[in-house]
Each structure stands twice: as C-alpha cells, then as structure tokens.
Amino acid sequence: MASLDQQLADLSADFAELSVQNRLDLLLEFANTIPEVPERLVGHPDLLERVEECQSPVFLLVEVDDGLVTIHFTVPREAPTTRGFASILHSLLSGRTVPEVLTASDSIPDSLSLSDAVSPLRLRGMRGMLARIKRQVEQKS
Amino acid sequence: MPIGFDTDAKINQYAHPEVLVTTDWVAANLATPGVVIVESDEDVLLYQTGHIPGAVRIDWHTDLNDPVRRDYLSDQAFSELLGSRGISRDSTVILYGDKSNWWASYTLWAFKLWGHNDVRLMDGGRDKWLAEGRDTVTTATEVTAVAYPVVARDDSVLRAFRDDVLAHLGLALIDVRSPQEYSGERTHMPDYPDEGALRAGHIPGAISVPWAKATNEDKSFRSREELEALYLGENKLTPGEPVIVYCRIGERSSHSWFVLHYLLGLPNVKNYDGSWTEWGSLVGVPIVKGTEPGKA
C-alpha cells in the first residue's frame, strides 16, 4: 500500500488537473463505489455514530483490530456528494494503522480542489467525518 | 406565446395557481418551446445521478451566491448565469429539486428578486417525479446559450435584512427551523465551536412553525385548507399583515415564504436570508431561549 501522504498527493493531483465539472464526475465515481457495510451492521444505525455535520443521515463506525483501522459508512443514495466524501475518506484511511490515521492531515477536505465545485459549506461535512474517525480511533486504540 | 397554466384541481385551489405545476404537467411539456426545466438541489451531484430529460441545473451555492461576499450574484452575473442555461427573460421556468423543493423554492425566490415573471415550482419536486417512476437521464443537457438582459435586483419587496428584522420586532415573525433549534437546546458539537451561529435560540416574538408542516409525505404541498388551518388558524396570521420568515441560511424559509405568499396569497411576506447564522452571531441583538416566542 502506498503511504497515506503519497496516496493523498496523487488524489489531490488527480482532482486539481480536472475541470470543475470533471471533478464532480470523479466525486460521483467515488460515491458509486463506496463499500457496503457488512451484513452484521445493516439495519443497526444504533451501532454507528451519526455525523451531525452532514445534512443527510450519515453514520460511521470505526473498528480497530490488531492496530489496523477499518471504517464503515452508511450514507443514503440520495446524498451522493456526502457518499463521495465518505468514499474518499474510506479509500484513504480504511486499512491503515492507528498512527497513520491519527496523524492524517486535518486539511484533507481542503486539499482536493473541491471548494469551487462543491462549496466550502458542503465540505464541512467531510471535516466532521474526518474528526469523528480520528476520535473513534483514539477511543478504540 | 404564453405557456398555459396547469388546470389540475389541486393546483387551482391555491391563491396563485400560476406558480405551481404538477408532475403530469411537466411530463406533458418536456418539449414545449419556451419552457426551461431547472433542477436545484441541496446535493450538488444529484442532477448527474439522473434528472428530468432536458432539465438544466442551477446550484444555490456555487451558482446563485456571490463567490466572495455573503450575498447573491451581481446583476451582470445573474444575466450570464440564466443566459448560459438557455433561459431568456420570457422563458417559462419550471423549478424542481430534492428535499421537498427547499432549494428549488430558494432559487425561485432569487429569480423573483430579479423580477423573472414566469417561474413555477413542480409540486413534490424530484422525489415525487422519481416515486412515480418517470423518465430520467444522466447526461447533462446540451444548452444553446441565449441573451438574458441585465436587470437590477430589487431587494426591497421580498427580502429582509437584519435592520428590517430589528424594525419588525413585535410584528409577525416565523421561525421555520426544527423545535430544537428554535428553543436553543441544540448546542454546538464540542469539537466544532466555530460552526453555525455563536448563540442559540430564536428572534424575540417569532413563532415556531417548522417548514415541513406544509408538506405531505410525497413532498407535495398540503391542501390550501390544511395550510390555512396551520398558518391562519392555529398560528393566527392574518392576511395582509407583514410577515418575515427565517431559518438558518434562508433555504427552508424560502419554502415557507412560497407557501405563505403564493399558496395562501399573503401579500407582504419577506424572507430573511441572513437568518439564524447571522442573527445568532450579531452583537447586541435580543434573543429568546425556550419554547415560547417571548417578548420583542
């Protein structure tokens, strides 16, 4: 696995070289490929934490096993932008070690050239997800 | 040639049936010359996941707001935006969107600030169109740009600023946010002290009528009789009195503004788009906490 820094730099470069419309297309690709939560979590929003910063009902659960972080998200299909944010964070952070996640840059949401395409207000939801992921990792490791 | 209004019985019970159409009407007018269908959503990607054939997109934040100041576009930029979407000054614009047409109502309100004459909402919005299994396409509509004149925005009739609200204290104010936001019990998340407004509660004298009380399960508007019972009966508004509505940033209150102004025909209703994110951070203005309106 490439380092988090490298993966983030590559993704930032991918977004930066696209037009605003194509950034939205790439974000939609992420939205469409977010992994489903495992069967044991389906229908159990009580086991997950609500991300209050998102206007749509978004839930996340972080599991730490043997020093590795696994992230689960449920985001409604009617909220593709939020699904896209969750999917990006999932692809960057899930499967990484506890120290990698805890030291991940808080400015990930700002480094993807999305504020023109999406608006800073909407990006706030992504910051909320990232902060909550880190807090859960801290609590569970 | 003027585009005909919807003759549907439900639509025609409202005070201004010329500003609302059914999904049936839209389905029958997809190719009518002079009609431009516009989707306005909370979610910036929804349009790409499937939209009404021929519809273009206008985003409340990235399109309608000035990119720097907290305000709407310049008159010049508005004219360029509409022209780029194939909308001319005499187009019949049909708006629809997610979240029971919150953002479509907001776009409609903005269009009215610039005095666009014929702009209508599709009752029930995006969700109703999808629930009825109607056609959608994912490819963006190709638009031939047209000329839209540069017209001056008029903020004096439909828009309230903070000083207007201060001068209005003691008169009818409606807070359309959730009961928790109204009472001030909803506090900031511990890790995010900079989010939203600095203070919680509501504007003194404002009554609480959450916006969603005006909608049915299928996201369409409630009947005129039900809306009159809610606003004129239970909440004792009188037709003719000046009313200001607000929420957090003015989007949910655009929905309530539409209901009061067009569906019930109240002549003097303004939307305070600064709303709680402004009032709750203003220095020195009065705020009431709790479930009672309180004294202005």
UniProtKB/TrEMBL annotation, chain A:
Q: What is this protein called?
A: Unannotated protein
Family label: Belongs to the SufE family.
Q: What is the lineage of its organism?
A: unclassified sequences, metagenomes, ecological metagenomes
Q: Give the matching InterPro entries.
A: Fe-S_metab-assoc_dom (IPR003808)
Limits of the Fe-S metabolism associated domain: 14-136
UniProtKB/TrEMBL annotation, chain B:
Classification via InterPro entries: Rhodanese-like_dom, Rhodanese-like_dom_sf, Thiosulfate_sulfurtransferase, Thiosulphate_STrfase_CS
Does the record's keyword annotation contain Repeat? Answer: yes
**Domain Rhodanese per the UniProt entry, residue ranges:** 31-138, 170-288
Keywords tagged on the record: Repeat
Q: What Pfam families does UniProt report for this protein, alphabetically?
A: Rhodanese
Does Repeat appear among the keywords? yes
What are the protein's GO molecular function terms?
A: thiosulfate-cyanide sulfurtransferase activity
What name does this protein carry?
Unannotated protein
Q: Where does this protein come from, organism-wise?
A: freshwater metagenome
